[in-house]
Write a structure and sequence with these properties.
Number of strands of chain B: 0
Oligomer: heterodimer
Structural class of chain A: mainly alpha
CATH architecture of the domain at 9-86 in chain A: Up-down Bundle
Number of helices of chain A: 4
Distance between the termini of chain B: 44 Å
CATH topology of the domain at 9-86 in chain A: 3 helical TM bundles of succinate and fumarate reductases
Largest sheet of chain B: none
Shape of chain A: elongated
Low-confidence stretches of chain B: none
Shape of chain B: elongated
Structural class of chain B: mainly alpha
Low-confidence stretches of chain A: none
CATH class of the domain at 9-86 in chain A: Mainly Alpha
Order of helices and strands of chain B: HHHH
Largest interface: A-B, 32 and 32 residues
Number of domains of chain B: 1
Radius of gyration of chain A: 25 Å
Helix content of chain B: over 70%
Strand content of chain A: under 5%
């Protein structure tokens, strides 16, 4: 059974960001090792590049570019959420939460003394 | 306050990479047309100070970002803790730095 919070679209956004990030990190060593063959054996680099002409490899590369793009855009969304200024409505809500908490705890305090 | 430092390092490395990723994707879409060859890639990158700085910075940022990102996954999903978690974070960071620097060196030295 899918737990309720996991049917939320933003939980899917979180999962996509996490899985894309992990897969990209796992791909990086292979990417670096292939590029480094430019130094040791240029023929090997050309061989690897010729291998990427394969349609299946092209599809896999499409997947990698998608992972990179979706991770970058999802990351920009996170940065915007965390660092861009809040709208006045959000500030009002945050201030209301504090005000309401003071009211609730004040009511408790007045009842207690 | 290691958590706060890692959090800020993760955000800073992300901010640095935002334009680098856009540039990288742009170059990929441009360069892949008509297929790739070693000569074509090296013709663009060899001896270029600009590409060396671009990809050098990219490697440093992605090594930090990848190590911290995988650290969070290992902590939350694999439940790795303490010294083991720190050790794995360092291994990932240094591994990416070494492999990435070698790759940048390989395609940029004239």
């Amino acid at each position: 059974m899918i737990r309720p919070h996991r049917s939320h679209p933003l939980w899917f956004a979180f999962l996509l960001h996490r899985v894309s990030g992990a897969l990209l990190a796992l791909f990086l060593p292979a990417h670096f090792l292939v590029l480094a063959t430019a130094l040791t054996s240029p023929q090997a680099l050309d061989g690897a590049l010729a291998w990427t002409d394969n349609t299946l490899v092209k599809l896999a590369e499409f997947g990698l570019v998608f992972l990179l793009a979706v991770h970058a855009l999802g990351g920009l969304r996170l940065l915007a959420l965390e660092f861009l200024p809040w709208t006045s409505g959000q500030k009002t809500l945050a201030a209301s939460a504090v005000a309401l908490a003071v009211l609730v705890s004040g009511t408790f305090f007045l009842s207690a003394v | 306050m290691l958590g706060m430092k890692l959090y800020m390092a993760q955000r800073l490395s992300a901010l640095i990479m935002a334009p680098l990723v856009i540039g990288h994707v742009g170059v990929m879409i441009y360069a892949v047309q008509g297929g790739l060859s070693a000569a074509e890639i090296l013709g663009r990158t060899q001896g270029s100070v600009a590409w060396t700085l671009f990809y050098g910075l990219f490697v440093v940022a992605v090594s930090i970002h990848g190590a911290i990102g995988l650290r969070v996954v290992l902590f939350e999903t694999v439940k790795l803790r303490g010294g083991g978690l720190n050790a794995v974070t360092w291994v990932i960071f240094l591994g990416l730095m070494i492999l990435g620097s070698r790759a940048v060196w390989a395609v940029t030295v004239p």
